[in-house]
């Protein structure tokens, strides 16, 4: 059982920011009609209810306010025009805007929640707040872009839950925000942020403005709504799987032995290919139908087809390219399916990510990918990146013991990739129970040399 103690509104410090309007770019509008992102960090910290209420909660409130001083759009709202002839949506911050912070205490078993074995997905929704209902003001529908929750497990640990609208920002940006909050909470002031402050001005070019118009024309006639009730029951279980350094080395050797003309293959490629083919073998026969693998790629600081100069590495917002890999189910389910998957993923990375003339090229093609053809049997979407570690956010309680992305429950199939801390990778999945059992068996058997 989880009990809410209070929900408070946290503003930036008074007079720290003036009114700000940030029109959405196509990079943001891609996510206008998607469900919110729910992310949880679990920390080992044996804390009493008295210490939590008297020390930790006041510190979290104070540090959040100081963080919003540097991330004030996070305290703002998304404005969606009611008039389809109006300009595109904007993020608006006005003095007095706040972020909702909920404080809760849970009697659920912390150690079971952070374990790697399969556990019911529904219980994790106790640790994050649902999106607030939309309100209407003048000519707009208005939605808050973030809400936060701190949950105590008495004498065992703390969970920090974040619910944010993807139109606000991508994974790299939300990691930056949560890490900034953590740094300030741990140090007591915001001086440590002086050299890593975010910038909010949207990337802009003549070509991107044209694409903005295309995206808005496609998005404006879709009813804008937020998910008020959290998606339960999910009928899913969540589990974590470890690819150790030795496993990754063996997978690379397996691939390169089958493709002797190549001299290297990335860790991401073999890990993604192994999970993808294991999943394909777990969800039944798809015959001649296709399987789809979707992965994001951060475009900041990279030569690309749209923006010159390159997008700043400290840009806060959405700046994702990525790749889509399509392969026949029967080929991936075959004995050499892993090699075929790794080759296909590697080819797309080389063609669409490493080639600066192709990264962010023809972004309007994303619109056609929002509705997949009938012949698609399964889709696997990658969340997160080991390069931007959410669990490294240290509020003074050490790094997080466990990260959970509840949004994995929304996808047909999704996985979170993160570092294991010893050179390996952690793969988090959300699947129906029977399919998870099948996946676990195939995953473990396939790593035996």
Can you describe what's shown?
With 449 residues, the chain is of the alpha+beta class. The chain has 2 domains: 218 residues, Chloramphenicol Acetyltransferase, CATH 3.30.559; 210 residues, Chloramphenicol acetyltransferase-like domain (Chloramphenicol Acetyltransferase). It is built from 11 helices and 18 strands. The strands form 3 sheets. Strands 7-12-18-17-15-13-14 form a 7-stranded mixed sheet. A 6-stranded mixed sheet has the order 1-6-10-11-3-16, with helices on one face. Strand 17 and strand 18 form a beta hairpin. Helix 7 packs across helix 9. The longest helix has 22 residues. It is globular. The model has no long low-confidence stretch (mean pLDDT 93).
